Write a sequence for this structure.
């Protein structure tokens, strides 16, 4: 894994992830792990009577898979210290079983902290399906390691 | 599942979930499902050299399991139409393998929408471990069904 | 989780669970966990030559998911001490991939034990599919906690 | 898989399965699949205050894994038509995380049915842990295929 | 599990396994466990533009499931000490979602080692689908236990 | 995912993957998916009497996770057409629960095929644990896409 620090990112840097197909197995495994068996996601009979007309993926599942898709690009390297949250989430369209999603992640904001060894990085995420429709957008905020400063006179 | 509508919740209503122990299996299954194999969560050798001193649960895992814990209480009934996002997330302490977490969820805000059949509901979540320390807090926002209005003169 | 005791149940009390769709992923995950790869459940080629005409869910899978469906209703609260078994199981129809099942559970019998702190509770379960056909029926027997008796003169 | 029929079993025939260690992962995967997150199995903090002193495996998990252990021996061959239920279940001791279980299964009863192509077979199961203690015993009842009868004069 | 040793196998001995249907859930679970999310296996949009015309199972998945299929026949008994590798693998046709595979395994070579308690056994595997087409062939090599030699004069 | 072709690799190119800790959950999930419940991997009681002194990871599990670890580095980009097999596998030491493994993969051989659009690539893999001991080595062979040739006068 590439060594990467807060200093190595510039506002505007962007990456597009691979795409992945959301399957029934994802929904079943997700519900089992998170205990969220809400019938809109797990009961076809219930779901087909809603405005969605059938089961849709849990929103947090699309969100969590987006985290992994961006991780796998290597874009972060090993710069992450902690997750600080998610802001401005919008879910303009449902993700259905059989849809394929990918993420376009862009550095939207950097800021220093009162700790010299840590910086905050905000990414703007645009999650799109196979028809290039945005299914989720949000700001993803991370605390990152800063590059250690060489001390003059030290080894 | 109990029929419940936006009208059935009042600001201040609260529920405390059961507790669940976070295991190594949760981390492994989570990473596999979401593709987030960041070494802080998956590589003990890497993690023990960080400030955490060992593997910690993915933040989004604690978040997603909290969703399920609240779901299982039956607090929502079948009132949910869609997830609108999460705000003001704070993660004051890590969740480690072997920790047990529970959620205290409280209705913090209600508002009408321009659609007569839908209302917004904001919940304040306090996720605590077995030592009663807050490990995550956030505002969880849902779109809910409103109770159908009886039309005078109709059936 | 609500505090509930053996004393809080009366013969005739009943609950209907949410419904859940049985998927191919349930069968695959079940076989992997329980080591039951019998071809009627796991091999479409074999199964389509049987009287069922295709793969059917393992009977114990429908049974085990019924346990969870009832659990999630909160009907038991935290009253359960131990599982005592299952009686009079009947499986009048197969559960196929894509079927959705729910459980109607009714208290059918209560009895005291020689221990003042425990009571036996028998539930009658009717597991139905989306066409309202019974796919499994059985008596489910639990040992429950009894309500602690206040001792006069104690705190 | 060996062709085997109801005729091929005699009362007293027995098989001992391999042994398998019950892990935390089994409990987590089981709960996720069956939706049974009862805290005795899933919350160490709750469980250690019970008479068990810690998390124990779900009874139906030991039962279902026993089904698979017997299946894997090849004892049944492809003789099974349907599961008819379980009788006389007793759970004399809990199965804890780290215990290893195996099954001794013995044919205890055979009977014909009104259908010439099917017979009922009852097995007596004794599930034991690594200290040779019985942790579960039950009668397992199956409907089996009977050997097709050669018709005189046919090919 | 039957006690079996290197001495109990002869060149030419063979076994045919049961068949199992490869499902979308197998691919999703495999990718999650092994971290191999290559889009040919996980992204229908990508896969349908390749020469395969759609997602195909990971080759190592077919291989690993073949290991289990042979294991379940009981052919090896408890003779295995260690896996020594795989040789001459050929993959003449893809395994698609919905295909059912089985293995014909045949002892092709035996040889002694310099350790009197161990022998090498080579198996030739032919993995076939439901149309009886070979989808994988390989030589599977195992180190096996040899039968302990009775020492004259000892107990 | 970066566009990459057979032409983009040179003998000697190498990559080192992140490390991952092998857990009990990996073994349980692996066995369930592949049906390989050999007691050396799944039964602590059996395994502790072998020369290994306890359960060890399935060799094919370490192999398959190595595939994923290399995939996640992005080293291949989208160059892979098909897996051609594995050669010269050696397993000098067992992988135990709690060990962390990483892979050093190096291009060891390239060769053209009779198809102008495909080339063969051989990688030498060295899988090491947290004590820098080699636990598996092998040659991994892939069929890759070649870079499309611009045709003079076209486009």
């Amino acid at each position: 894994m590439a060594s990467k620090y807060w200093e190595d990112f510039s506002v505007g840097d962007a990456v597009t992830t691979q795409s992945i197909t959301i399957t029934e197995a994802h929904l079943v495994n997700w519900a089992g792990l998170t205990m969220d068996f809400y019938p809109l996601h797990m009961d076809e009979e219930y779901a087909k009577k809603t405005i969605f007309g059938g089961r849709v993926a849990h929103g947090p599942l699309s969100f969590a898979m987006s985290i992994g898709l961006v991780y796998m690009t290597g874009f972060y390297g090993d710069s992450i210290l902690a997750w600080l949250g998610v802001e401005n989430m919008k879910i303009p369209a449902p993700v259905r079983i059989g849809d394929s999603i990918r993420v376009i992640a862009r550095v939207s904001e950097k800021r220093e902290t009162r700790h010299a060894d840590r910086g905050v990085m905000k990414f703007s995420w645009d999650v799109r399906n196979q028809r290039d429709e945005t299914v989720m957008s949000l700001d993803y905020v991370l605390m990152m390691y800063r590059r250690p400063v060489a001390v003059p006179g030290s080894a």
About this structure: The mean pLDDT of chain F is 93. Chain F is about 20% helix and 35% strand.
